[in-house]
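We were asked to recover a plausible sequence for a given structure. The inputs and outputs are reproduced exactly as logged, with field labels preserved.

PROBLEM: sequence recovery
POSITIONS: 537
GIVEN STRUCTURE:
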C-alpha cells in the first residue's frame, strides 16, 4: 500500500511538524493506516525539544514527490542468471506472455544483459551455418540431454566443446567425424563408438543405447554421456546447453533506476527503439523491466498539505502529485488541483486548533502525549496567545489539550521561547523559519525568530544582514526581511534588505540602517504580508 504523505511547509516550524503528526494520528485512528507524517526540512531546536518532551520521533524526511519509476506498475518477470542454459531460458521466456525480453543478471544480482526473442532467433539461425559448440559446462550438457556421465576423465570432462557430428555408417567414410575436436552422437553402433574412442573425440553421446563394459574400461580421454533422446533431438538440445550470457545482449544497454523521474525517463525512451528496459535499485540489482506502456498512465504520489497552501512553500514536485486535502490557516495562494479536493481553511492562529476540532467532530480524543504536543504547537504558533492571529478558539482548544495532557500552558511557553539560538550560524537561524512570497510582481522572503530576550540576537545584526543580502542577490528578490519577535516586548525588531521607502510606507515607521522596531507586530501572516500586499496592490 503506497503511503499518503501528510506534510507541512518547507523550513518547518512547530505547528507545521505537529500538524503532520496529529492529522496522521487522526486518520490512522479511524482506520486509514496509509497516512504517514512527513517533513520537508531540518527540524528547529525548539520543535525538537517539544517532540522529545512528549516522546515523539520526528516525521519522515522527504525531499520531493516527483513521479518516479518506483511509482509505476512495471513488470517483474523472472531474472535469469547469466549461467543458465539457453534451453531453460527459452522455457522461461515462453511462459512470459506479456514481455518481449528478460533481464539477465550476474551472480550478485547486478545487470548482465537482456535476452529477447530476437536474440534467441539469431542464435539458432547462426547454428545453421556452424555446427560447432563453444565450451559449455558438462552440467549444462547433462541437464538439457537428461543424460548421465559414464566416466570421469579429470579436468577434461568439466567443459565440453567441439564440432557436433551424428555418426554415419562406416561405409560413408567421407561424412564421418575425422578429428578429435568433435562431439559425436551415435546409437547402438559399437564400431562407431570404438572409432570415436580411438580417435579421442572430446565427447561421445550415446543415444537410446548402452555401452559395453569393455569400452567403459578402456583408457581414453573422451567423456561418455548416455541420453534417452534420439540422435536428431539430442543434436538440437546440445546447442541449448550454451549459457544464456553468451546469447543475450550485454553491451550498450539502457537501464533506469527506481529513483529516476518519469519525465526524464520518457525523454530517453522516446529517442530509443528498444522494446523494454531493465530497472535497477540503489544497489544496481535488477528489480524489473519497463516498457512504453508503463509510462502512459503513471501512478502519482498522494499528499495532504497542512499549515500551507502555497506552491513555493510546498514540497518540490507537487505539480506531479495528487493533492488529496489541504488543512491550513493562512491566506489562500496559488496551488491548483486537477480534481475537486477537501479544503479546510479557517481564520485561527494554529493549524493544530483546526485538527483538534476535527478530532472532536469525529468523537475522538487525542492521547495524552498527542494532546500535549498539540497544545505546545498552538502556544508556539500564537506566540503564547499574543499574536494578532490568535483567537478565543485557539485559547480554549489549547486549554482543553493541556488538561488532557496534564501540562501547564505557561510552562510550555517558557520552554518553547526561553532559549534563543545565539550560538548558531546566522544563516541557519535565518532559514529556521523562512518563507518566500510573490506579491503583485514582487518576490521576497520573510524569516522570523521568536524569543523572550532579543538583545543577543540584535548584537549579530551585521551577520544577519550579510546573509540576507546574499539571499536577495542569489534569488533576485526585491526584499528580504528578518523578524526578531520579542514575546515580552510584544513587538518585532525588523531587519531588512531592500527599499527604505517600502518599510516606511508599509509600516509607518522611520527605518535607519536597515532596522526598524514594529510595536505590537507579531505575525508574519497577518501583519507583515498584508501590509506589503496593501502597499504593492
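RECOVERED SEQUENCE:
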Amino acid at each position: 500500500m503506497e503511503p499518503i504523505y501528510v506534510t507541512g511547509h518547507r523550513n518547518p516550524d512547530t505547528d507545521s511538524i505537529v500538524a503532520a503528526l496529529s492529522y496522521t494520528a487522526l486518520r490512522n485512528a479511524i482506520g486509514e493506516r496509509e497516512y504517514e507524517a512527513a517533513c520537508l526540512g531540518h527540524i528547529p531546536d525548539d520543535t525538537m525539544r517539544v517532540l522529545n518532551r512528549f516522546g515523539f520521533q520526528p516525521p519522515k524526511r522527504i525531499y520531493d514527490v516527483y513521479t518516479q519509476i518506483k511509482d509505476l506498475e512495471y513488470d517483474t518477470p523472472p531474472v535469469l542468471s547469466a549461467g543458465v542454459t539457453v534451453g531453460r531460458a527459452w522455457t522461461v521466456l515462453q511462459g512470459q506472455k506479456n514481455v518481449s525480453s528478460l533481464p539477465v543478471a550476474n551472480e550478485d544480482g547486478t545487470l548482465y544483459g537482456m535476452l529477447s526473442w530476437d536474440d534467441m532467433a539469431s542464435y539458432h539461425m547462426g547454428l545453421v551455418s556452424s555446427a560447432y559448440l563453444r565450451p559449455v559446462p558438462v552440467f549444462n550438457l547433462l541437464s538439457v540431454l537428461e543424460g548421465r556421465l559414464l566416466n570421469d576423465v579429470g579436468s577434461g570432462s568439466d567443459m565440453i566443446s567441439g564440432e557436433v557430428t551424428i555418426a554415419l555408417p562406416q561405409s560413408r567414410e567421407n561424412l564421418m567425424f575425422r578429428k578429435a575436436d568433435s562431439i559425436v552422437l551415435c546409437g547402438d553402433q559399437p564400431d562407431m563408438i570404438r572409432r570415436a574412442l580411438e580417435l579421442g573425440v572430446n565427447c561421445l553421446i550415446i543415444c537410446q543405447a548402452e555401452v559395453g563394459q569393455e569400452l567403459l574400461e578402456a583408457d581414453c580421454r573422451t567423456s561418455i554421456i548416455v541420453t534417452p533422446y534420439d540422435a536428431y533431438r539430442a543434436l538440437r538440445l546440445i546447442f541449448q546447453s550454451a549459457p544464456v550470457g553468451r546469447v543475450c545482449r550485454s553491451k550498450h544497454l539502457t537501464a533506469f533506476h527506481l529513483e529516476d523521474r518519469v519525465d526524464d525517463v520518457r525523454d530517453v525512451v522516446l529517442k530509443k527503439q528498444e522494446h523494454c528496459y531493465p530497472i535497477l535499485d540503489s544497489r544496481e540489482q535488477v528489480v524489473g523491466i519497463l516498457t512504453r506502456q508503463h509510462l502512459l498512465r503513471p501512478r502519482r504520489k498522494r499528499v495532504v498539505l497542512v499549515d500551507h497552501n502555497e506552491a513555493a512553500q510546498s514540497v518540490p514536485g507537487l505539480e506531479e502529485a495528487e493533492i488529496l486535502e489541504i488543512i491550513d490557516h493562512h491566506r489562500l495562494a496559488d496551488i491548483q488541483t486537477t480534481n475537486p479536493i477537501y479544503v479546510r481553511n479557517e481564520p485561527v492562529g494554529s493549524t493544530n486548533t483546526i485538527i483538534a476540532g476535527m478530532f472532536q467532530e469525529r468523537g475522538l480524543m487525542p492521547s495524552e502525549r498527542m494532546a500535549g504536543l498539540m497544545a505546545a504547537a498552538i502556544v508556539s504558533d500564537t506566540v503564547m496567545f499574543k499574536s494578532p492571529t490568535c483567537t478565543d478558539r485557539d485559547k480554549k482548544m489549547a486549554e482543553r489539550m493541556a488538561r488532557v495532557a496534564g501540562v501547564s500552558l505557561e510552562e510550555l511557553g517558557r520552554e518553547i521561547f526561553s532559549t534563543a539560538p545565539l550560538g548558531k550560524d546566522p544563516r541557519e537561524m535565518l532559514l529556521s523559519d523562512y518563507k518566500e512570497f510573490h506579491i503583485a510582481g514582487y518576490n521576497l522572503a520573510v524569516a522570523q525568530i521568536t524569543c523572550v530576550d532579543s538583545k543577543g540576537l540584535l548584537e549579530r545584526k551585521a551577520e544577519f544582514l550579510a546573509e540576507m543580502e546574499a539571499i536577495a542577490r542569489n534569488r533576485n528578490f526585491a526584499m528580504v526581511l528578518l523578524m526578531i519577535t520579542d514575546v515580552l516586548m510584544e513587538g518585532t525588531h525588523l531587519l531588512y534588505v531592500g527599499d527604505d521607502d517600502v518599510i516606511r510606507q508599509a509600516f509607518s515607521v522611520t527605518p535607519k540602517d536597515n532596522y526598524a522596531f514594529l510595536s505590537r507586530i507579531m505575525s508574519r501572516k497577518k501583519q507583515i504580508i498584508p501590509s506589503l500586499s496593501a502597499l504593492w496592490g
